[in-house]
Amino acid sequence: MPATIVETNSKKFKRKDIDPITLDIIENAMMNARYEMDAVLFRTAMSPGIREQHDEFPMIANLEGKMVVGQFGSFIHGFKEAYDGTIEEGDLFLTTDPYACNGAISHINDWLLLRPIFKDGRLIAYAAMFGHMTDVGGKVPGSLPTDAREIFEEGIRIPPTKIYKNDELQTDLLELILHNCRMPNWNRSDFNALVAAIRTAEKRVIEMSERFGDDTFYSALDELLDRNKRAMSKLIKNTVPEKKQHFEDYICDDGLGMGPYKIKCAMWREKDKVIFDFEGTDPQSISSINFYLNEEMFKMFCGVYMIMVFDPQIMFNDGFYDLMEVRIPHGTLLKPREPAALSCRTHALGRIFDVLGGLLGQGDPDFLAGAGFSDSPHFMYSGYDKDGEWYQLYSIGFGGIPGKPSGDGPDGHSLWPSFTNVPNEFLESYFPLRIETYETIIDSGGAGYNRGGNGLRMGYCFLEPGTISIHDDRWLTYPWGVNGGEPGRRSEKILVRTDGSQERLPSKCDRIEVGSGDILYFNTWGGGGCGDPLKRETERVEFDVRAGLVSVEGAKRYGVVMNDDLTVNAKRTQTLRAKMAKKRGKVPMFDRGGDIATLKKQCLKETGLEPPRQPEFQTWALKALEGGAGKGGSVKVKRSASKNKRVVAKSKSSSKAKVSSKKRTA
Amino acid sequence: MTYRLGVDVGGTFTDLILVNESSGDIHTAKVPSTPSDSSIGVMNGISRVCGNAGIDPKEITQVMHGTTVATNTVLTGSGAKVGLVTTKGYRQVLQIARSYVPGGLGGWVIYNKSAPLAPLACTIEADERMGADGKAVRTLDTKALKKELERLKDENIEALTVSLINSYANPAHEKAVERVAKQVLPGIPISLSSTVVPEMQEYERTITTVANSFVRPKVAEYVKNLEKKLKKSNKGVQLNILRSDGGMASAKVAESLPVNLLMSGPAGGVSGAVWVARQAGFNDLLTFDMGGTSTDVALVQDGKAQLRRETTVGDVTVRASSVDVRTVGAGGGSIAHVPELTGALRVGPDSAGAEPGPAAYNKGGTLPTVTDANVVLGYLPSEVRLGGDMEIRKDLAEKAIRPVAKALGISVKRAAAGIIDIVNENMYGALRLVSVEQGYDPRDFALIGFGGAGPLHANALGKLMNSWPVIIPPGPGVLCAYGDATTRVRDEASRTFIRRFADTTTDELMNIYGKLADQALKTLYKQGVPPRECTVACQADIRYQGQGLQLTVDFDLKALKKGDLSVIGDPFDEMHKQLFTFALDADKEIVNLRAVAQGKSAEIEARRLPKSGSRTPAAGAVIGKSTVFMEGKDMQATLYRRDKLKAGNKIEGPAIVLEMDSTSVILSGHTGNVDQFGNILIAPSA
Q1: A–B interface: beta-carbon pairs under 8 A
Q2: Is A51 part of the contact surface with chain B (CB cutoff 8 Å)?
Q3: Which end of chain A, C or N, has fewer beta carbons within 10 A?
Q4: B371 CA: distance to closest CA in chain A (Å)
Q5: What is the pLDDT of residue B389?
Q6: For residues B134 and A188, what is the distance between their CA atoms, to the nearest angstrom?
């Protein structure tokens, strides 16, 4: 049953003609309201994840639920389809269950609040916002278990629930939820902050509707969606070829020692419409790296990315959704079935952007950027301090932004909008640790005409015994370079104990015990280079060397030879560049630093870690995909002797995989 | 007799105001600015104003001056080559810059980051470590530091910044670095982060201190030069510079902490506006200062401008208190365009600036600007000129706007009206930021419009905000000079003190505030202000424990002595509720403590206009009639000469009021009343 909207005023809105200037004014006012939501949240939230790092996203939608301003697109349609109840004035919904809102949020840590906005008894708009809670219970501090096999291990799951009814907070319910969290005070305060931000949006929307008139406001939102659709339609026609483009990228491992997992997508245009087809993507993981990808959200990713690359003047909203079709096969990494674990979806979420960049860029290589810092590596540290007080830190790491046609990628930055680091002095004064090293890693950015940004090295010195968790990726596969640019350097984690012994930690792990004085070096990866490094102006190379961002040795990747006084040796540079150009031959569009088989073979030697095993997939998931395999043919399934055992042969690598015999409820 | 002098250096004119300190009598003068060396213009102005008043320049005891030197140094990137010393492991703190990428999703695609204000090649590390608790973890390796500093010497740095981790908790290591640096780099000015802004957050503290070093030589040169010229003719004169927070600092203090001057210019405008409005009887107001490329707005409550603990100039944001002025890139020179893909009308952020300027000025500009729209609509009459030498070409303005009209499929006049509506909307957004979005109801505030284009748009903004009356003061330049002349010497001392309320006693706080007050008073004493003439205000930055924001609470130290921490806690809850609709039942935490000392202010009164017996302006005040496009149709507006208006006159809109350096619009359906000080107070007609 879809949701029922209860309105006390049945008067219909009238569509009016809007002059372009009023329209621009309303668009402006909507954007202001959206940024005001952010401002209110950042200022009043308590967890460093939201208040410092800004792990949250706002949205304002029209009365049909289409996003007019926001970031990640609207999910309201899916919510309305799935929610079997009423939507009434004074309601405020809370949900944390990706499966119950068609992936509007993609793991339980994200608390999503949704408010229908009523004026004079009529629904006029929606405001929504979600924020990442530091802890929502479950089996590990931070609620993102790298080894979870079911969503039930990942904390308290809240279906769409009226946390406010008739504008009254359902206190019992909130207390029940908070009772299940390790840091209830943070959750409570962050929850309050989200509510305050949504109320701000509501106030603004009602003010606007009063200022311009209800019918004008209603019509303006529609027209804003239409205007965006018209602009995007032109953009799609100009930039997306009818010929099919393919691209694939990987998640290196699943936290259980298996990997890599493939994300594959094809893109082509049929008249006005662009189609994305994820056929060929690996089946869902038995671990928690699955990313329940909402099709509408993917459209937004794609639309925004196209706008940024091709024409940043366009304001984005949901208007262009009809111009895109997204096909994601069920039972895959990107459309897992309940109750698959989802908590560590951050890697796949990030990698989607690399896939998108690779797809869109192929049609127009002048706009192609290198592989980015397509992740939000997590670091968690928790325990009891010397006074017996529980401390729990969750923070996000940053790395190299790729080289891009417009210039170099920044060093140690965030690919996500509005994210910032937590100041180290803040960390040191509130948590028992000291950050001894905070620098970008020399030479880690991929060489290119435009250099990839360097990865970041943080050296955490622990001052109390505790446990840490790490979530990262790109330790096996490389952040690729484009059009002659080289890949960036991969990530690594090194734990140095007080006795001087060193340990390579896997990219994803939980419950690692640390003692006072131990130091963790958390090294993120560099961005891929963009364009031919041999053509980079030697002054720019010299600048980087003098700044300590590229070493004298590293300058040779650009064919640049430095003198002892850190000036460029022009003569030797010319010779070296000529030699390298000749040896290299034709410049490939993508440089992935080797195929998967090679990377696996060299894995232990190069990374100090065993290569991941071939993933085991669940029987049903393979079976489900088998039906669709005829079309794309990228996943072939052969039956083996045993009924429950299957062997997967991948069309590309043709390596063999063992498949889990454990059957799961679907 | 003693006099104080306020000086404002604008792009075109330098305005001066001379105040008799005992009688409060004032004299003003306006002379052309001399951009290559603005002290020349200032000195010319001083002879002019002293000549007018018939006094000897030696009778001037204080010169108060707002300057944009620091701002321009940052905007043009023309500051010093700055060397930076960080803690080992933190050399790239400015390069990483909190990892922030502006713009939305995918914003990185078009983001090209500028190099740090202190080049990485000139950044070195000191091997030392201070803990968050202020205890040394590792002492400074001076030998290694010396070697590194030698290298900076070879780089020919012009200023040095020292910013070490946790120095806000204990400055000992920064001081130790300073001692070594003084030996190795004699004559190079050194800024310590623990002196400039002893507050938590390594990036913000570092960028603030580096910005201080960056602008320091330029500011010092300017201030020294001006002071030298002033002292040549008048040995005893003291030069004071207006700080971003609206207070005055002696030339010497200003020179060593120039990061506090980044908003000196706008602060002068706000101070002037506050003063003018107070004379007119309004203490709650929104200031609206619209220039050629940008517009500054601020909120003033109870005669006090709101302050902010952050100052942004260009893409540099520093931790320094400033009048909470919000700037939008919308001004008379903002260019209108219609992007092909969306067909939407956009105004700015690109600006035609002074060169080539709006099309109507016939200086080579061809793109449609806000000024051109004002000309097309008749708000800037092309047929009448008053003393100004700028010719206005309506035909060129129309030609520039035609393509916009064509792209939108509407008439040129309607397109011009659209441009004005959009630019007004942008400025409306900024005014909302300082009012509605901070929990203030704009209907409780008057709106004062100044700056080159402010009086043209103020009435329309008043209408959008519902803020009445709209005040148009006479002579926008003099306004800033008034601000300069009437502000007080100010200094503040602060320290970070992160502590839960539950773990804090009032005795402890009283003790710290005592020290901070002494420190601030001492600084003023050095500037020649005896403590008995000063007032000290106390502030605490507070938040709920674990929260990111801090709200600044002003309180009475005596009340704290008698009472308990609720003296600062209760006002915090109130403010939190006002701003965010809720207060929390959570532990509160102190973050920073601050004492603000101020000298006494000058009691001066604005010059009064002669009273008119009649509400109707005298015949000589009316220049003629002109067609204006308002509310979607042509109307006949009356044109007035402002210098012929008298107190008590009433002007019915639509009307245009002209004076030498500004033009005011009174919209149809509104009435302007001329008050006894020559302000026009606009309100909807009854």
Answers
A1: 233
A2: yes
A3: N
A4: 18
A5: 54
A6: 32
Interface contact A75, partner B, CB < 8 A: no
Model confidence pLDDT, tens digit, residues B298-322: 999 988 888 887 888 877 889 888 8
Per-residue buried b or exposed e for A38-53, using 16+ beta carbons within 10 Å of the residue's own CB: bebbbbbbbbbbbbbb
CATH class of B77-215: alpha beta
Average pLDDT over residues A636-656: 38
Task: Fold for B283-468, please state it.
Answer: Nucleotidyltransferase; domain 5 (3.30.420)
Instruction: Compute the 3-state secondary structure of chain A and give helix, strand, coil in percent, each to the nearest 5.
Output: 30, 25, 45
What whole-number distance in Å separates Cα of residue B451 and Cα of residue B296?
9
**Closest chain A C-alpha to B656 CA, distance in angstroms:** 25
Residue A577: strand pairing partners: none
With bands split at pLDDT 50, 70 and 90, how would you rate the model's confidence at A458? Answer: very high
Look at A459 and B110 and tell me if their CB atoms are within 8 Å: no
In angstroms, the CA A424 to CA B577 distance is 30
Is residue A64 assigned to a domain? Answer: yes
Minimum CA–CA partner of A305 in chain B: B106
Q: Which two tokens mark A510? A: 């939980």
Indicate the residue of A71, A311, A412 with minimum beta-carbon distance to B99.
A412
Q: What residues 641-670 of chain B have any CB closer than 8 A to a CB of chain A?
A: none
Contacts of A316 in chain B (CB under 8 A): 104
Chain A neighbours among B 584-603 (CB < 8 Å)? 584, 586
pTM: 0.85
Contacts of A39 in chain B (CB under 8 A): 437
Given an 8 Å threshold on Cβ–Cβ distance, is B109 in contact with A406?
yes
Measured distance CA(A267)–CA(A265) in Å, rounded: 7
Looking at the partner chain, which of A228, A425, A438 has a beta carbon nearest the beta carbon of B200? A425
**In this structure, are residues B419 and B330 in contact, taking their beta carbons and an 8 Å threshold?**
no
Q: Would you place residue A646 in the very low, low, confident or very high pLDDT band (cuts 50, 70, 90)?
A: very low
Would you list the domain boundaries of chain B? 77-215, 283-468, 490-598, 614-686
* Strand (E) or helix (H) holding B376: helix B370-376
Residue A498 above 80 pLDDT?
yes
Encode pLDDT of B27-56 as tens digits.
Answer: 888 887 787 788 898 999 999 999 988 999
CA distance B416 to chain A (A): 11
For A:524-583, CB contacts with B below 8 A are 546-549
Q: In A, which residues are within 8 Å of B90 by CB distance?
A: 438-439
The 3 state secondary structure assigned to A393-412 is EEEECCECCCCECCECCCCC
Instruction: Determine the residue type at A44.
Output: T
| pLDDT, tens only, A166-180 | 999 999 999 999 999
Number of domains in chain A: 2
User: Which domain, by its residues, includes A653?
Assistant: 619-657
The answer to whether residue B212 neighbours chain A at the CB level (below 8 Å) is no
Distances (CA, A) of B355 to A401, B337, B367, B585, B663: 37, 19, 12, 57, 21
Q: Which residue of B87, B101, B127 is the best one to mutate when testing the A interface, meaning the one whose CB has the most A CBs within 10 A?
A: B101
Q: Is A398 a member of any domain? A: no
In residues, how long is chain B?
686
CA distance A653 to A630: 19
C-beta contacts of A534-542 below 8 A and 24+ residues apart: A534/A484, A534/A558, A534/A559, A534/A577, A534/A580, A534/A581, A535/A449, A535/A484, A536/A447, A536/A448, A536/A449, A536/A450, A536/A451, A536/A560, A538/A568, A538/A570, A538/A573, A539/A568, A540/A451, A541/A568, A542/A566, A542/A567, A542/A568
Interface contact B502, partner A, CB < 8 A:
no
Strand order in the sheet with B238-242: B26-32, B13-20, B3-9, B60-66, B238-242, B248-250
